[in-house]
Amino acid sequence: MNGSRRTVLSTSTAALILAISTLTLAAPNAAAEPVDTGKGGGTKEAGGGDGTGIYAAAKIQYSGSVAKNGSTGNMASSDVNWTPPPCWYAPYLGAKDFKKKMSKGIESQMNTPGMGGTAGAALGELQRHYEDDYGWTDTPGYKDYNVDKDGKGMFWAAVENPSEPDILKRNSCSDIPFWVDNGEAPPPQYKEAITPEILAALAYQHIELPDTKVTLAPKAVTKVNLPTWAWLDKAVFGEVKATAAINVPGFNIQATTTAKPVSLKLEPGTSDAQTYPASGECTINADGSIGEPYAKGKAHQTPPCGLKYLRSSGDGTFKLKATITWQVNWTGTGGAGGDLPDGNFGTTQDITVQEIQAVNR
């Protein structure tokens, strides 16, 4: 039996959302865990939500250079309009386990004192959807929770990205759990269903770049009007890779995000300074290095990458900020791949600038 999904949702949207949100479907051994727990090289991410929504049990396994202890990485996107996915749909449970979890939740809510009216009706429709083949225009119903297909597919459910600050975006994957046969793609209406591209964006979000300090000559102490050379040796930094993968019965995908350094920007920490080149942007050399190491006899030459302070730092220091721009791309299952926004990561160094002292005899 099929009804009109639009009609059903237009008459009881709030009640249906309430009914779904009060069913806490916790991932096995991961109840109340945020979805991003346990990241770091070779660790796994447990599915989850915020304690009030539906949980997904698929684990995202991260490897490579990724942040540990559940934190996001240190690479900032150069595109202010790009953000990682706020939520997605992922494999949750097989048919028998889903029936046990969902039917128990529905029954518990139906027996809640005061549960009636529109909210009770919405719960009844939800129960019919999974038990009695009641569906909507683009959402087929299920007979007895698809238990006759147990082992041949999985129910998928929503996963929230806890690093997304906007709660409305985080909760925007609001569809109820749906079935996907092993080896088949999720129905097209679920545009947020997990894909290699989404995994690539999550790897981007958690990639950890090296905390590389620029080599300077003179080092931490320089003189007013004395050119300071700056460079990065190719042996000190290079490509950084992070991989995110999901491996569950009948569904295995992965994506690797690669960040490659392409330029260095120097910001002296004061307007009383000159940078070389004038833009402060030092591009990468053919051999993968940036700038040129200082050599004896070049003290008063203009460095290809560097700066010159025009006044002393007095009793303090100037904060020299060195920001590396990283070119980012990704590859994934099935030959998928493409570009992601450039990333930036900067560090600061304390620079003492002294006046050149003249001695009269």
List how many beta strands DSSP finds. Answer: 17
Helix content: 10-25%
Low-pLDDT residue intervals, each spanning 5 or more residues: 1-15, 22-55
The end-to-end span amounts to: 105 Å
Strand fraction band?
25-35%
Order of helices and strands: HEEEEHHEHEHEEEEEEEEEEE
If you compute it from the alpha carbons, what radius of gyration comes out, rounded to the nearest whole angstrom? 28 Å
Structural class: alpha+beta
Major β-sheet profile = 9 strands, mixed
**Shape verdict:** elongated
The helix count comes to 5
Mean pLDDT, all residues: 83
Description:
The chain is an alpha+beta fold and 361 residues long. It is 17% helix and 31% strand. It has helices at 5-21, 95-110, 117-131, 167-170, 196-206, and strands at residues 43-45, 60-64, 76-77, 87-93, 153-160, 178-181, 215-217, 221-223, 228-232, 240-248, 251-267, 273-276, 281-283, 290-291, 306-309, 318-332, 337-354. The strands form three sheets. Strands 1, 2, 3, 8, 10, 11, 13, 16 and 17 form a nine-stranded mixed sheet that branches. Strands 7, 9, 12, 14 and 15 form a five-stranded antiparallel sheet that branches. β16 and β17 form a beta hairpin. It is elongated, with a radius of gyration of 28 Å. It starts with a helix and ends in a 7-residue tail after the last strand.
What distinguishing features does this structure have?
elongated; 17 strands; 5-stranded antiparallel β-sheet; 361 residues; 5 helices; alpha+beta; disordered N terminus; single chain; 9-stranded mixed β-sheet
